[in-house]
Amino acid sequence: xxxxxxxxxxxxxxxxVMIDENMDDKLRAIGVKDSKLLSHKRRVELEKxxxxxxxxxxxxxxxxxxxDAAVDSGDGFNLNWLExxxxxxxxxxxxxxxxxxxxxxxxxxKYTEYLTKLLDNKDVGLVVEHKADxxxxxxxxxxIVAKVEREKEVNEIEKMVDESIGSGYVSNKICQxxxxxxxxxxPKIFRKSWSTWKNHDHMKKQAxxxxx
Length: 212
Fold this sequence. Notes:
The protein has 2 domains: 2-157, 2-Layer Sandwich (Nucleotidyltransferase, domain 5), CATH 3.30.420.10; 162-210, no CATH class. Helices cover 51% and strands 12% of the residues. It contains 9 helices and 5 strands; from the N terminus they run E-E-H-H-E-H-H-E-H-E-H-H-H-H. The longest helix has 25 residues, at 137-161. The chain is globular, with a radius of gyration of 19 Å.
């Protein structure tokens, strides 16, 4: 049901797609699968079809500053726990009988325990797995919805800065160049807890120190 993570630029989108269990085959039939295996155009097409099939859809947008607060908290809180809290918000709002989670943590049992404590209804059937978006059509559908929202935000950012930011992921060369040239200019769009941003900030401060 729920999917998220990764880019240095922009927000984190977590989506929940609630369907009747007998609709899995219909999701497969229209071509729903892991969003990373689909083109942008196909994701947009499928997102519209998913909303027709789903009983409900909920999206949470997590802004960069909230992500940074979690990553740099220093008190044991981290991005995984932040995602668990947002996933719990979706489950508590949609009230499904069963919730299937694509687990962001390497420790599935610990993550499941943490998530369960956040649920209003402890009797929800939780299925927490790695790569759930490959194994469950509903999770793949949620990944598509989240990805489409993410791509809308990227378009909005590019309009604001009047240039391409690439994918927003640091593996992308266009993104690397954009971060290097603009990490101070547009502070609100960056995840400053990411090592990429911190490295540029550190080098800038070091250069200023070297001037003395």
